[in-house]
């Protein structure tokens, strides 16, 4: 867990983020990070993990032993066999004393960390106020306008889970999204493949963008017919739609079986012996999950992924929450997907429309940034921990996202009475 600060705010990144120190790889192997934040004043708080001996603790013990004079421990084995009851009692006392001391130390560390987290959490609320507590600040500027809603999926509508195939949203959340979509144009923008996120959400009332916005399905617009990479297609109900896939030329490189070393299979083969590693086909993005990989093997995961993509200069590596993502090098991200969808839904006039984007991941920062820099909407960061963001507001978790969506519906109903 890294704590960092810049001149304006304290920053707490995701627990155990993938960085130079955790991966212990050269900077040339590091994954690309979309948004850049100040790297100044990093403060690392060690995390204790059950069953894992911290190497620093081991070194500490080695140093203590080498610098201490011989004691009872150094007596020979025969003498130990002749231990007296007094010795036994003394050793027991030493153990109890050590355990008590350990408890005290761990309790103190735990207390300090909790205090630090509460302080940083308070700092987050100051810089990025709760979208629930500051609901009026969001809806007052929306009076007389249409709210357009953009929602990330993992960590926003569904909890982050160990198995990415099981990131199901609750029925209550699905009902909340369905209700809000009745009042506001709503789109899901996910790093998952569009088909997969549709399977999870299962609502026909929404627009969907998969692969971090590189696969957008929207309503038919004659004006987009000349747009490169935009084709006519049909949705699951057989309705004609526009399909925009700006990275379509990369698909053969990533998946075509006739190629001797296509990317998806190479990544799967290169990581299949790493326990817990999982490679996911997200169409224009291949995700290598390491959430279930032992931390000591994260370096291996990064190295194996790098070994594959080093042969593909037109692919790049980004990272999300315990996932490495291989994607095409194109000038396209979730921010551009928001702009495209607003145009596609004929909602690009900021005088009449207030876009709101809710997301939890680094890739959502591109969308937050578009809204902030365009001064035409609000980003809402979903995070229980403080971290630097281009968002304006925050929500703690998917449960608060659901409450926010319900509040929007209530507000809309009462404001039109
Ligand atoms: Mg997410």
Automatic annotation (TrEMBL):
Pathway: Glycan biosynthesis; trehalose biosynthesis. It catalyses: alpha,alpha-trehalose 6-phosphate + H2O = alpha,alpha-trehalose + phosphate. Keywords: Hydrolase, Stress response. CDD domains: HAD_TPP. GO terms for molecular function: trehalose-phosphatase activity. It is an enzyme of class 3 (hydrolase). SUPFAM superfamilies: HAD-like (SSF56784). Its cofactor is a divalent metal cation. InterPro entries: HAD-like_sf, HAD-SF_hydro_IIB, HAD_sf, OTSB-like, Trehalose_PPase. Its EC number is 3.1.3.12. One of its GO terms (biological process) is trehalose biosynthetic process. It comes from the Eukaryota. NCBIfam families: HAD-SF-IIB, T6PP. Removes the phosphate from trehalose 6-phosphate to produce free trehalose. Trehalose accumulation in plant may improve abiotic stress tolerance. Belongs to the trehalose phosphatase family. This is Trehalose 6-phosphate phosphatase. It comes from Gossypium australe.
